[in-house]
Amino acid sequence: MTQRTVFGWTLFGSVDGIESAPSHLQSMHCNVHLDRALTRLWELEEAPQKTHLTCEERHCEEFFEATHRRAPDGRFIVELPLKSDVPLGDSRNNAVRNLLRIERRLARDEDLRQRYNEFMQELIEMKHMELAPESSNQTFYMPHHPVVKESSLTTKLRVVFNASAKSATGNSLNDALFVGFQLQQDLFSILTRFRTHRYAVTADIAKMYRQVCVSPKHVDLQRIVWRRDPSLPMQDYRMLRVTYGVAAASHLAVKSLQQTAKCSSNVSEKAASVILNDFYMDDLLTGTASKAELLLLQRNISGILQQGGFEVRKWASNCAEFSEYISNASKTISHYLVEGKDVHALGLMWNTEDDFLTFTVNMTKPPAALTKRTFLSDASTLFDPLGLLSQATIRSKMWFQEIWRHNVGWDDLIPDSIATKWLEHRSELKLLSNFAGLV
């Protein structure tokens, strides 16, 4: 007999002439996230390779070209690149259970609760989220949770929406979406090119994803449940903008950014080229050979991106005249100019006054139990996109290979001999924060 289940068609029942099944079976479990994290640890030092679009990636490119349009204010309106063969089921019940868990957490932390409410209220006031009406469209509800980043100059708390949560069919919204091709260049290329400029500048785009509108036909796939206080009834909302946590969000936002440059009425080819080549997500690292060029480039980049609804801010430069010009250029955009001389630059720190890059070493208290899992997390803390610290970081990778050869489980303690070497090496890594002026 056959029966269709969430796993596909399933055969069951007895079959004549077949020997009885063995009394034991074998199974295998793959932790994809950890394996992928380990792969990325090595990929950072690989030379860039020429890539070719897959059929799915080519479909995303063609889909965007065929479906995007511009709103009267110039913003992009995009559709989600849905797969036709991935059904979605009920997801609201899971979202409700998640909200109840979050409310218990918020009840224990008044400051967190207040900031969470402020973030959600901002979405409503900026018209990036609205109450969801009755709809006959297919819906998907995303659970959400807070992520706190105290080092951020602007948003200390960000609410992250989980579009990977499974619906009743076993599929999530992210399962039903094409992801798209990585449109921007790699970190290594952008950082090395950044250091070739006599006068360099950095900036970022405010709320980049949320500057791109989602087509009305797909906003019900970005629903959430929310209430300001547990004493109030739960309400259904829907996100009207491209949302962080949705698999296609990065491709749609970057594609809109680049399309703004391609379709701009501004005739500056230099500024358009910079937008296409010197952004990594919402971060800009670029420069020029002269001060006059730098000022002109800044005006043209801001002018072009404003046409697509993108606001560029947090400008910083090693050119004192540029910083003085920027400080007087706009009084309406918050954080238009970065304060202080130390600026974040794609995982590194850039001292704009003396013009050098250095490293941020966030080595906190060692893990209580040094398992294979915690060792990988601890050893990955030091971010080195240019490979300048390879002589120091290579040792942790060699130790991890040795752990792997010992067949240690992810939650098993690593050998004492490796643990002793790592803890000694770990204490020395903190000294790298004083190693400045590398490039």
Sequence-ordered SSE layout with sheet pairings:
Blueprint: E1 2-5, E2 8-11, H1 32-43, H2 55-67, E3 69-70, E4 76-78, H3 92-107, H4 110-125, E5 129-131, E6 144-148, E7 157-161, H5 187-194, E8 199-205, E9 213-214, E10 223-226, E11 235-239, H6 249-262, H7 269-277, E12 279-280, E13 283-288, H8 291-306, E14 312-317, H9 320-329, E15 342-345, E16 348-351, E17 356-358, H10 372-379, H11 390-405, H12 416-429
Parallel strand pairs: 4-9
Antiparallel strand pairs: 1-2, 3-4, 5-11, 6-7, 8-13, 8-14, 10-11, 12-13, 15-16, 16-17
Helix pairs in contact: 3-4, 6-7, 7-8, 10-11
Write a short abstract of this structure.
This protein has helices at 32-43, 55-67, 92-107, 110-125, 187-194, 249-262, 269-277, 291-306, 320-329, 372-379, 390-405, 416-429; strands spanning 2-5, 8-11, 69-70, 76-78, 129-131, 144-148, 157-161, 199-205, 213-214, 223-226, 235-239, 279-280, 283-288, 312-317, 342-345, 348-351, 356-358. It is an alpha+beta fold and 439 residues long.
